[in-house]
Design brief:
CATH architecture: Distorted Sandwich
Radius of gyration: 18 Å
Number of strands: 14
Shape: globular
Helix content: under 10%
Strand content: 15-25%
Structural class: mainly beta
CATH class: Mainly Beta
Number of helices: 2
């Protein structure tokens, strides 16, 4: 059942819709990218919607005893109809993390939503990534969404390896991605940054599609919870020397640092991808209530 909001939804101005180009390769030093290409979308959004700040503050106040605020989201594993099979383990794999974007945010599919190349189906008009439906609740899980990437957590044995999250508006290079835990930067690729947590069990968090020109970190840097990493963008690396683009969003991953065993006896090898959705729902609830102040 959908989680009910404690605050009202109003209007959040959408502007600056970038052109999209279908990505055709990645020269990142990271593992293969987990994103599918998007069709070109040049339509701008002139309508608007917003979150009523006073209502949101009231919701946060009413939830002060638990330091969380409610917002609308679909349950974990419930993917967009026709987008693939989900997964069975709905554990919170990263409890207590900071939400990775320092703004309001909307978790949903980048390829099965307006502006994506599988919306409504491949080969048909895909609409605009700035469509208002992309910047509205409820959230939608898209871990294990149908992709060719290996993912042992998915029922199909392959699928999307993280969660896609749009920032507050359809505008690139505007909203900061931040460190979800204290840790070290262990990788910087052409469009990927990896953060390995300091505390056990040393989760590995990967941020994809940040603007490379805005990065405030390099390999070996120690970062603290809430520290700015880079701006959310549509960066998809380069192909044949040409910049490639996806939709404006953060693809966020959680990986395990060492082998772990699931309750059903399934053994996950080190570096396996695990579902981030429930950890993000928890983190965003606390984010709305004021948790995790941004650190320069």
């Amino acid at each position: 059942m959908r989680k009910l909001a404690l605050f009202s939804l109003c209007a959040l101005t959408l502007s600056g819709c970038d052109q999209l180009m279908p990505p055709s390769g990645d020269n990142s030093s990271a593992a293969p990218a987990s994103e599918a290409a998007s069709e070109t979308a040049s339509e701008s959004a002139s309508d608007s919607m917003s979150i009523d700040a006073s209502a949101s503050a009231e919701a946060s106040s009413s939830e002060s005893s638990s330091s969380v605020a409610a917002f609308p989201y679909e349950p974990a594993t419930e993917l967009v109809s026709g987008s693939g099979q989900g997964y069975t383990d709905t554990s919170n794999w990263a409890p207590g993390i900071c939400f990775p974007i320092a703004s309001l945010a909307f978790a949903n599919s980048q390829v099965y939503s307006p502006g994506g190349d599988h919306y409504p189906s491949y080969g048909h008009a895909s609409g605009s990534q700035c469509d208002l439906n992309n910047y509205a609740y409820p959230w939608h899980d898209n871990f294990c969404e149908a992709r060719s990437w290996s993912n042992v957590m998915c029922k199909a044995g392959a699928g999307h390896q993280g969660q896609d999250i749009r920032p507050q508006t359809c505008k690139a290079k505007t909203y900061w991605a931040v460190a979800v835990e204290d840790g070290s930067i262990t990788q910087v690729g052409s469009y990927t940054v990896a953060l390995t947590g300091t505390e056990t069990p040393h989760r590995i968090f990967r941020y994809l599609h940040l603007d490379s020109g805005s990065l405030k970190v390099k390999v070996g840097d120690h970062v603290v919870r809430g520290q700015k990493i880079g701006l959310v963008s549509d960066n998809f690396g380069t192909s044949n020397g040409k910049p490639q683009h996806t939709t404006i969003h953060l693809h966020f991953e959680v990986r395990i640092a060492q082998s772990e065993t699931l309750p059903d006896g399934t053994i996950l090898a080190a570096s396996s991808f695990v579902p981030p959705y429930n950890a993000l729902v928890d983190a965003y609830s606390r984010h709305l209530a004021g948790d995790c102040q941004v650190v320069e």
